[in-house]
Design a protein that fits this description.
Mean pLDDT: 86
Helix content: 55-70%
Number of domains: 2
Order of helices and strands: HEHHEHHHHHEHEHEHHHHHHH
CATH topology of the largest domain: Rossmann fold
Structural class: alpha/beta
Low-confidence stretches: 329-336
Number of strands: 5
Shape: globular
CATH superfamily of the largest domain: P-loop containing nucleotide triphosphate hydrolases
C-alpha cells in the first residue's frame, strides 16, 4: 500500500494506519504545495478502498486493483482543473526513452487523469464545450488501445509517431480542462452519481484544485458533504487550503503534504520520468522546462517585480512591458500559455516574499497582506479567467499600496 508514493512518510503513515483500521473519513482534504504527490496519493487511497484482498499491495492482481492502476475503475471519478498537457508530453518522452512497462503505465495514467474528467457520470453535458470534447476523448482512448499493457511495443519510429499523435490529440482536451472551474452542473451530477447503488464496491470522488469552484458549486458540494452516502468517499485536493471556505473545511479531515526534499524530487525524476543527471533542480524546474519557461529568468523577473513594488517611486516603470516576454500571446507552445506562466510567476513571487520574511526585511503583517493579494490574483486568473497581464498589473499596484501602508 502506497509503495509507489515517493516521500510524504507522515501522511502516508497516517493513511496506511487509518485504512487498515477502517477509519478513513468519508470526506477529506489533501493539501500542500504543487508537485508533492497529492493526486497520486489520492488515487492510491482509492485503490486501497476498493481492493478486494484488503491489503492493496502494488502487486495485488485483484480485478479492482487492475482497474484502479490503469485509472479505469468505474466507481472512481475525477473532477477539477489540471495541467495535463505537460504531464502527458513528459510521460510520452519517458516511454520513448525507456520503452519499459512502467513508462507505458505512466503514460496511460497521465492520459486518463485527463480523459476521466469527461466521464458521463460526472461531466456537465449541458455545457456545449464539454459535449464537444467527448469525441476527442474517444479518440484518445482509441490511441491508448494501440499501447496494450502486455506484449511488445511498436518499433521506435512507429512508437514515436503514435506518441506524437497522443500528445497532439490531448492538447485541446487539456486546454479545456486547465481553464475550467468545478461548476454546479458537475457537482449536481456528482451528487446524483453518489446516491446510485454500486453493489459492494465503494465509490470515490477526487476533486482536484477544489479551491477553484464556483460559488453555486460550493453550496451544492456543501449539501453533499453534510449528508454523504455511506458508500462514498470524497477526497478534495488543493494547493491553497486558505481559499476553501470555512463551512466546507469544517467537514473535511485535513492531510498536509510537505514539499519533497531535493533527493526525493531527484528520485521522482529518475524513477518516474527517466531523467537522471540532466541538471534539473527539482520537479518544478522540470515542468517549467517543458513549458519552455526558463526558471532562472522567472526568478529574476519575480525579484524585479518585488523590488519595484517596494521601491519608493518607480516613476516611468512599465511593469507590464517588462513582463511582455514572460506572458506569450496567441496559441500556447508545449503547454506554455500566459495563464499557466502567470500562475508560475505568482508562485515565484510568493517564494521571494517568503525569503524577505526569513531575512527580516518584511514584517509579518506585510506578509499577510501581500499573501492575500497573491491569492486574490491567482483566483482571478484561475477561477475567473481574467487576463493575466491585467491581473498582474493590478497586483503590482496593490502590493505598492500595501508596502506603503
Amino acid at each position: 500500500m502506497f509503495e509507489n508514493i515517493i516521500g510524504q512518510p507522515v501522511v502516508v503513515g497516517a493513511l496506511r494506519s487509518e485504512l487498515a483500521q477502517g477509519r478513513f473519513p468519508p470526506s477529506s482534504l489533501f493539501f500542500g504545495p504543487a508537485y508533492t504527490g497529492k493526486l497520486s496519493t489520492a488515487l492510491e487511497t482509492a485503490r486501497a478502498l476498493t481492493c478486494v484482498s484488503g491489503e492493496a499491495a502494488w502487486s495485488c492482481d485483484c480485478h479492482a486493483c487492475r482497474l484502479q492502476k490503469d485509472l479505469s475503475h468505474p466507481q472512481t471519478v475525477l473532477l477539477g482543473p489540471r495541467y495535463s498537457d505537460v504531464e502527458i508530453a513528459a510521460s510520452a518522452d519517458a516511454l520513448l526513452r525507456s520503452r519499459k512497462p512502467a513508462a507505458r503505465h505512466l503514460l496511460v495514467r497521465a492520459v486518463r487523469k485527463l480523459t476521466r474528467r469527461f466521464d458521463l457520470s460526472v461531466a456537465d453535458l449541458d455545457d456545449s464545450r464539454v459535449r464537444g470534447m467527448q469525441e476527442r476523448v474517444g479518440q484518445l482512448e482509441d490511441l491508448l488501445a494501440e499501447l496494450p499493457p502486455e506484449g511488445e511495443l511498436p518499433p521506435e519510429a512507429r512508437l514515436a509517431r503514435l506518441l506524437e499523435r497522443i500528445v497532439l490529440a490531448a492538447a485541446p482536451v487539456a486546454a479545456q480542462v486547465r481553464v475550467d472551474t468545478i461548476g454546479i452542473g458537475q457537482v449536481r451530477r456528482l451528487a446524483a452519481w453518489s446516491h446510485l447503488t454500486s453493489g459492494d464496491s465503494r465509490k470515490i470522488a477526487i476533486l482536484e484544485n477544489a479551491d477553484r469552484m464556483q460559488d453555486s458549486a460550493r453550496n451544492a458540494l456543501l449539501k453533499l458533504l453534510e449528508e454523504p452516502p455511506s458508500s462514498v468517499s470524497l477526497i478534495l485536493l488543493s494547493t491553497r487550503r486558505a481559499a476553501i471556505i470555512a463551512t466546507i473545511l469544517s467537514r473535511l479531515r485535513p492531510y498536509s503534504f510537505a514539499s519533497r526534499g531535493a533527493e526525493e524530487e531527484k528520485e521522482v525524476l529518475t524513477k518516474i520520468f527517466r531523467r537522471e543527471g540532466e541538471g534539473f533542480t527539482g520537479l518544478r524546474a522540470f515542468f517549467l522546462a517543458w513549458r519552455e519557461i526558463n526558471p532562472e529568468k522567472l526568478q529574476l523577473l519575480a525579484r524585479r517585480f518585488i523590488e519595484l513594488a517596494r521601491a519608493p517611486a518607480p516613476a516611468g516603470v512599465d511593469i507590464v512591458q517588462e513582463m511582455a516576454e514572460l506572458l506569450p500571446e496567441g496559441a500556447p507552445r508545449r503547454g506554455r500559455s500566459s495563464r499557466e506562466t502567470a500562475v508560475s510567476f505568482l508562485e515565484e513571487v510568493a517564494a521571494g516574499i517568503g525569503a524577505l520574511l526569513r531575512e527580516g526585511e518584511l514584517p509579518i503583517a506585510a506578509l499577510e497582506r501581500w499573501s492575500d493579494a497573491l491569492r486574490d490574483a491567482a483566483a482571478r486568473i484561475e477561477s475567473l479567467n481574467m487576463q493575466p497581464a491585467a491581473v498582474l498589473e493590478a497586483l503590482f499596484h496593490r502590493l505598492r499600496t500595501e508596502a506603503a501602508a
